[in-house]
């Protein structure tokens, strides 16, 4: 008998079994069920259990889940509580990969399942196969998950990691300079280029496609095993922007699905098109892994099933991932992006006119997404967050040095709430 998860469940083995700082809003009462009209923003907003008295602009340490996702979690949780050997019919993980791949505009064989962006990046930077003399390029603006993952890679392999600066003043960032900085930082043996789609420190949206096109030129004439691989932390773009992986042109994209996609907490994906360059680092519970273990052999070349970490998860959350993708698809990726950026543009325009505010996020929609970062003259960001919460605006602080006050516009925020934020910031004197 093949020992996969279903078989283990059948034997009864399971039967016994901020990075960002924000001020929490008062929990709201459970809302009444409302018919969902994906073309109506008020109806979209009504699918969330958020307290309507607060403007939710904290940019998602963990995002709220809409009604279909909450209901799916409840269904699977209740089924597991009633029968610890419960498993949805078919191959749940395969089904999740298929819906995620459809959303990405890719094939299911490119999608591995994770618990978070950080886990996905850890799988990449721990598993990437580096040959002697190969090096890694990243930027000064990336988050701890990238920098620490690469530092650990350096300790294990001795590979050199270089950082380049993409801009000095984020509000004046330009696509040309960002591409040029990556190009100038490349070496003849650079194997990994690690970047972030939308910087959580400033709200700058990096021109991933232009960087990918530049790398395609640089890779001409290189052996396949020497090709520079573009690895992207996509968490603040995935779900907020409409781009699929073909639009981005990257080799790997890691993202949690519990932020801008409004998926279940503790879920994520890594998409890749060069898995042969990555070795599994956490044992898989795939059929191939069990077959190899039982026979004393090797499961063979890397696949998304082998890359996906095994172990027992909060399965009621993982199995609810398809409902998150279906919810966003029903609204439409283009409409989500348009709504997110329209609200961000309105927020930036209002903040720009306040004398004691300095915007850090570019005005251009081509260089920004849903994050809007700023500083308040003579006020620390944490103080601003506390005072805004008193005005029923939930904001956050960027976990960087120096830190900034940060807002996130999304499908759960409204034009009226944007006006509420602007008026609240005006009072921060």
Give a concise summary.
The protein has 429 residues and is an alpha/beta fold. 38% of the residues lie in helices and 13% in strands. It has a domain at 92-328: Type I PLP-dependent aspartate aminotransferase-like (Major domain) (Aspartate Aminotransferase, domain 2, 3-Layer(aba) Sandwich), CATH 3.40.640.
Summing up helix and strand content along with how strands pair, one would put the structural category as alpha/beta
Gyration radius (Cα, Å) is 22 Å
Question: From N to C, what is the helix and strand string?
Answer: HEHEHHEHEHEHEHEHEEHHHHHEEHEEEH
Q: At the first level of CATH, what is the class of the domain at 92-328?
A: Alpha Beta
Give me the CATH superfamily of the domain at 92-328: Type I PLP-dependent aspartate aminotransferase-like (Major domain)
Number of helical segments with 4 or more residues: 16
Strand content: 5-15%
CATH topology group of the domain at 92-328: Aspartate Aminotransferase, domain 2
What's the N-to-C terminus distance?
Answer: 69 Å
How much helix, percentage-wise, in residues? 25-40%
Q: Return the average pLDDT rounded to an integer.
A: 92
Q: In the CATH hierarchy, what is the architecture of the domain at 92-328 at level 2?
A: 3-Layer(aba) Sandwich
- Give the strand tally: 14
Stretches where pLDDT is under 50 for at least 5 consecutive residues are 1-26
Keywords:
single chain, 429 residues, alpha/beta, Aspartate Aminotransferase, domain 2, five-stranded antiparallel β-sheet, 38% helix, 13% strand, globular, disordered N terminus
């Amino acid at each position: 008998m093949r020992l996969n998860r279903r078989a283990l469940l059948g034997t009864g083995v399971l039967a016994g079994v901020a990075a960002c700082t924000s001020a929490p809003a008062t929990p709201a009462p459970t809302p009444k069920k409302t018919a969902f009209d994906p073309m109506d923003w008020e109806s979209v907003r009504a699918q969330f259990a958020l307290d309507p008295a607060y403007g939710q602009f904290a940019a998602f340490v963990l995002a709220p889940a809409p009604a279909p996702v909450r209901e799916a979690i409840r269904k699977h949780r209740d089924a597991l509580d009633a029968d610890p050997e419960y498993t949805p019919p078919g191959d749940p993980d395969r089904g999740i990969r298929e819906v995620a791949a459809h959303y990405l505009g890719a094939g299911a064989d490119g999608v591995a399942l994770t618990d978070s962006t950080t886990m996905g990046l850890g799988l990449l930077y721990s598993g990437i196969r580096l040959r002697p003399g190969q090096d890694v390029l990243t930027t000064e603006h990336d988050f701890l998950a990238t920098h620490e993952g690469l530092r650990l890679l350096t300790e294990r392999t001795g590979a050199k990691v270089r950082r380049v600066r993409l801009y000095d003043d984020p509000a004046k960032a330009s696509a040309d300079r960002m591409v040029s900085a990556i190009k100038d930082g490349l070496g003849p043996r650079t194997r990994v280029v690690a970047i972030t789609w939308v910087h959580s420190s400033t709200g700058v949206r990096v021109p991933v496609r232009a960087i990918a096109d530049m790398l395609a030129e640089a890779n001409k004439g290189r052996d396949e095993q020497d090709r520079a691989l573009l690895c992207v932390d996509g968490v603040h773009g995935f779900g907020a922007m409409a781009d699929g992986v073909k639009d981005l042109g990257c080799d790997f994209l890691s993202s949690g699905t519990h932020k801008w996609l409004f998926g279940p907490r503790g879920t994520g994906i890594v998409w890749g098109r060069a898995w042969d360059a990555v070795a599994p680092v956490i044992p898989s519970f795939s059929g191939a892994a069990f077959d190899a273990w039982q026979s004393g052999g090797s499961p063979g070349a890397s696949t998304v099933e082998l890359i996906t970490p095994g172990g027992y998860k909060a399965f009621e959350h993982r199995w609810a991932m398809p409902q998150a993708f279906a919810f966003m698809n029903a609204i439409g990726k283009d409409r989500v992006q348009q709504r997110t950026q329209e609200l961000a543009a309105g927020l930036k325009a209002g903040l720009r006119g306040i004398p004691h505010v300095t915007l850090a996020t570019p005005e251009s929609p081509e260089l920004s997404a849903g994050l809007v970062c700023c500083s308040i003259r003579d006020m620390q960001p944490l103080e601003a967050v506390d005072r805004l919460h008193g005005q029923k605006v939930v904001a956050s602080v960027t976990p960087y040095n120096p830190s900034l006050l940060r807002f996130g516009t999304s499908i759960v925020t409204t034009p009226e709430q944007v006006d509420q934020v602007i008026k609240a910031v005006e009072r921060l004197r």
